[in-house]
Amino acid sequence: MSNDWHRADVIAALKKTGIPLAKLSRRSGYSTGTLANALVRPWPKGERIIADALNMKPEEIWPSRYLRDHNERVDISN
């Protein structure tokens, strides 16, 4: 199984797009530090916001949160 991105790598990737995490959080209607929660614990909505900003899928950034053994996708729709 692939490793999740390090949170510093996620932050750096966002900065490279010109949208720092705090700014993305505010643009999404949250307080400045709210999206940082997705960097340290599962939060599908926050993960989707971050992934969308990077033109990626959340499971590409946090595979351990979405894929089980043998790359079976975890259902997080609830």
UniProtKB/TrEMBL annotation:
UniProt keywords, alphabetically: DNA-binding, Transcription, Transcription regulation
Keyword Transcription regulation attributed: yes
Signal sequence, start to end: none
Molecular function in Gene Ontology: DNA binding
Record-linked Pfam families: HTH_35 (PF13693)
Gene3D superfamilies associated with the record: lambda repressor-like DNA-binding domains
SUPFAM superfamilies linked: lambda repressor-like DNA-binding domains
InterPro entries on file: Lambda_DNA-bd_dom_sf, Ner_HTH_dom
Homology family: Belongs to the ner transcriptional regulatory family.
Protein name: Transcriptional regulator
Protein species of origin: Salmonella enterica I
